[in-house]
Design goal:
This protein has 343 residues and is mainly alpha-helical. The chain is 72% helix and 0% strand. The longest helix has 35 residues. The model has no long low-confidence stretch (mean pLDDT 83).
């Protein structure tokens, strides 16, 4: 990785967020400059710039973080300025003291840095001026408030589309994995085929984690969001889908692992194994049916009726296969339970 790679990200910020950040910064500069005309409103502009975040809730958190950091920084700078005067070395001492206070209070790194930066700027820009410290705190509060208001008023961000996309991807891949395992149970497999099947099954875990993270981000984006009522039900449906599919991921990976560990060439001749394969095809159908809530415009399906409607009839397996078949049956029972078939 080159040094320049650290300067770029894999994707750009949304243009709307860039525009909102610009609007908030300009508004903070003009309003704070009009209300507190004694100094350039640098603190207000910086606060507004930092407060506009991907969600209104994050904006509120960043506003509080910024305000606390500035307040502590200004207090440190003012105290040291009164104690030692306006010497250049006092700025260095202020940075050290600010960092130590942040460390002692167990502040987050961003907040600790904010305390030090505020102390340094306060001393560098004129802490000796009467009312300077109070003006800078008020200026920061104005900028933070403007940033929050702009983010909430101008198309407040709602992270539902990523949650829907990740949930749909998980549902589609989970159904495909069930079909692949069913096909592997029906026909003889090479060792390479089994390894490929296992690798594809393991990929379900990071997909489930990505979907969980997207749902969490969507939930966070609706907190304090004026548009939350229009999306709350949709997000609840996606969350319910993830709660249903999450355990199935675990069971399907377990079934694939058991198949890979106990496979032999005569396995597909077992009548019960063929019945399990048929059930897995039905599982795939019902997963696709459940995952349709994650698709804005779901494609038509051959059947919209759940396929797991009949109980599995088990015949006694041969002695060499009973451990594998027993394991597959137990995982299959749990999957049927998650999909509502056992009810």
């Amino acid at each position: 990785m080159s040094v320049l790679d650290n300067l770029r990200t894999s994707k750009r910020l949304p243009v709307l967020q860039v525009l909102k950040t610009s609007v908030a910064t300009i508004a903070a500069w003009l309003i704070a400059g009009a209300l507190i005309p004694t100094q350039l409103p640098v603190f207000a502009a910086i606060a507004a710039l930092l407060v506009v975040q991907p969600s209104v809730n994050q904006s509120l958190g960043k506003g509080i973080e910024r305000s606390i950091g500035v307040l502590l920084g200004v207090i440190v700078a003012s105290a040291l300025s009164l104690a030692f005067g306006a010497y250049s070395w006092v700025v260095l001492v202020a940075v050290l003291v600010a960092m130590l206070i942040a460390w002692a209070l167990k502040m987050a790194p961003a907040t600790g840095n904010q305390v030090a930066i505020s102390a340094m700027l306060t001393l560098a820009l004129g802490a000796a001026t009467p009312n300077y410290a109070l003006d800078r705190v008020l200026e920061t509060l104005i900028g933070a408030a403007i940033g929050i208001i702009v983010n909430a008023a101008i198309v407040p961000p709602v992270a539902i589309a990523p949650a829907r996309r990740e949930a749909a991807l998980l549902g589609g891949e989970l159904a495909a994995s069930a079909d692949r395992l069913a096909a592997a149970l029906e026909t003889a497999q090479s060792r390479a085929d089994i390894e490929a099947l296992m690798i594809e099954a393991r990929l379900l875990r990071p997909m489930r984690e990505a979907a969980d993270a997207a749902i969490a981000a969507g939930t966070e984006s609706l907190t304090l969001n004026p548009r939350r009522s229009a999306h709350r039900e949709e997000l609840a449906q996606l969350g319910a889908l993830l709660e249903q599919l999450g355990p199935i991921v675990t069971q399907l990976i377990g079934m694939t692992r058991a198949f890979a560990d106990h496979y032999d060439a005569s396995l597909h001749d077992e009548p019960t194994v063929k019945a399990i394969a048929e059930q897995l095809h039905r599982v795939a159908h019902d997963i696709r049916l459940a995952a349709r809530v994650a698709e804005p415009e779901p494609e038509p399906m051959t059947s919209t009726v759940p396929a797991l409607t009949s109980a599995l009839v088990v015949r006694p397996p041969t002695s060499s296969h009973w451990i594998l078949i027993g394991s597959l049956l137990e995982d299959l029972r749990r999957i049927r339970e998650e999909l509502g078939a056992e009810a």
